[in-house]
Amino acid sequence: MKTTFKKSFPFIFLIIIFVSCSTEVVRQHQEFQSEINVYFNKDADTSYAFPNNKAKFNINFEEVLINRIEKATSKIDMMAYEINLPKLIDALIKRASEGIQIRFIIDAKSHDESMVEDTSTVERYTQMRLYLEKMSRGKDLIPGTDDDIMLLADSPIFTVTDTTLRKKYKLPISFNDYENVTLKIGNKNISGHLLVDAELKPGCSDCYYSPGAQMHNKIAIIDTQWVFTGSWNFTITGLYGTEKDMQNGNLNGNQNHIVEIRNRQLASIYLKEFEEMWGGNNRKPNPTFARFNKRKTDNTQHIINIDGRRVEVYFSPSDKVLDKIINTVEREANRSVYFTIFAFSYQALVDVLKVKWEGSIEDLQGERTNFDLKGIFDATFWNQWWSASINMTGRTPKQTSELHPMRRWKNIPPVYRDRDSRKLHAKTMIIDEGVVIVGSANWSENADANNDENTLIIYDRFITNQFMQEFRKR
C-alpha cells in the first residue's frame, strides 16, 4: 500500500493537533513516498481481505531482503540472532565489494551450546561462525581491507579452527590473521583467535559479558530509508525447513512474518538503536562505547505518523515493551484480541486478557463477557507449566511461582496448539481488527527484561486486515 503526504490545510491542521498531544511526534522531510509492506511465508485466507488489500503470502523472505540489498546505494545496517543462508551472505559480500558500507550485529552463543535442531552436517553455531568469517574477510578473503563487512556481537566470537570445515566453506586454512587472545568472558578466561569483537565491560580492556542474554533482533536498515523487521531469523529452518528444501525452493520452514517500511523517520529511529549498540556512527564498531541488553537506555522516539497512520516503535529491554503492549490492550481492545505466539508467559498480560474475557483475574472465577478472544500457541511450549496456555485452558500447572501463579480461567476461550509440522514463530497480536502488534519479542519476562528486541504497534485497519487474513488460515 503506497500513499503520499497531502499538503492540504485540513491535513496540516490534524498533524498540528497530533503533535500537540504528543511531543514525541516529529516529522522529517523525505524525498520519496512512504510504504508499509507485509509478507507471510505461509498461507492466508484472502476471502477475508478488504477490496484491493489481499495479503502477500507464500513469499520467499530471502528474495525480498536480497532485492532490497541489491538496490542499496550507500549503506546497510543489520542485526541478526542467527544467519546461515548462503545466498543472503553472498549478496552482502558482493555489495560490500561494490563499495556499500555494511555493519552487522550478531548474537553470540556459548561454545558449549549444541544448537543441533535441524542441523545437517555441522553444528549450527560452528556453521554460522564460518559464514561470519567469510563476511569479515570480504570478497578478497583478506580481513582489514575495504570490502570487509564490519561485525560486532554481544559477546566475543572466535574463529573455527577445524581444517576440514574451513576447506568446505572455502576459507583459508590459516586463521592467524585474526589475533590470538585470552579474554575474560563472564567469569571465565577463554582463548582463541578473535573473529568478532564485542561490548567491553567498563574499566577493563579484555573483560566481556557472557552470551547469556540474547541479541534477538532480525533487522535490516537500508540507506536510512527502509526498515526490514519481523519474526524471521535469517536461517534455513526459519524459511525453508531443510537444506534440501532450500535447494528446491520449498518454503517449509517456521511460520513467520516480515514487515518492511520505507520511511526516513522510522529508519532514523532504528539507526539510533543500532548505533547505541554499535558504540557510535563510524564504520568500525567501538566496543568501549557499545551498549547491549540492560546497559542500553530509553533514548529513541516512540511515536511517529506515517501517511496518517500512527506507528509506535519500542526496543527491549530499555523501553519496557510489555508494559506498552498491556497499556495498548487496556486502551484499545474493546471488542476483540486475536494472537499467534511462539512463547507467552508474561502474567500481567495474561491477567489483562482474562479481565477482558471474564471480568476477573482470580483463579477459576469470572463471568463470560462479550469480548472475543482467540489465540494460537506454538506446540513447543503448549504444556510447559509457565506458559499462558495452561491457565487459559483451565489446566492445573505442575508447579507455580511468584511470576507464574495459578490463575486458571473459568470460561475456556478458543485458544489452541498449532498443528503445523514446523514452529509457529510469530509474535502477533490483533486488536479490534484495527491495531496490530508485531516484532521479534516473545511475550516473556526474559524477552522484556534481558534480550535485545524490537516491537512495532501499527494503527491501521488495512495493515491489520492483512494479518487477519493470515490469522484466519492458522
- Please, how many domains? 2
Question: What's the alpha carbon Rg, rounded to whole Å?
Answer: 23 Å
Distance between the termini: 24 Å
The strand order across the widest sheet is 1-2-12-11-10-3-4-5
State the CATH architecture of the largest domain.
2-Layer Sandwich
Mean pLDDT: 92
Describe the structure.
It is a single chain. This protein has 13 helices and 20 strands. Helices cover 27% and strands 22% of the residues. Helix 2 runs parallel beside helix 3 and helix 9 packs parallel to helix 10. The strands form 3 sheets. The protein has an 8-stranded mixed β-sheet with strand order 1-2-12-11-10-3-4-5, with helices on both faces. Strands 13-14-20-19-18-15-16-17 form an 8-stranded mixed β-sheet, with helices on both faces. The protein has a 4-stranded mixed β-sheet with strand order 6-8-7-9. The protein has 474 residues and is an alpha+beta fold. It has 2 domains: 257 residues, Endonuclease, Chain A (2-Layer Sandwich); 171 residues, Endonuclease Chain A (Endonuclease, Chain A, 2-Layer Sandwich).
Topology:
Layout: E1 2-3, H1 9-21, E2 34-40, H2 61-71, E3 75-80, H3 86-97, E4 101-106, H4 124-137, E5 150-153, E6 157-158, H5 163-168, E7 180-185, E8 188-196, E9 207-208, E10 218-222, E11 226-230, H6 236-239, H7 243-248, E12 257-262, H8 264-278, E13 303-306, E14 309-316, H9 321-332, E15 336-341, H10 347-358, E16 372-377, H11 388-392, E17 415-417, E18 427-431, E19 435-439, H12 445-449, E20 453-459, H13 461-473
Parallel strand pairs: 3-4, 4-5, 7-9, 15-16, 16-17
Antiparallel strand pairs: 1-2, 2-12, 3-10, 6-8, 7-8, 10-11, 11-12, 13-14, 14-20, 15-18, 18-19, 19-20
Helix pairs in contact: 2-3, 9-10
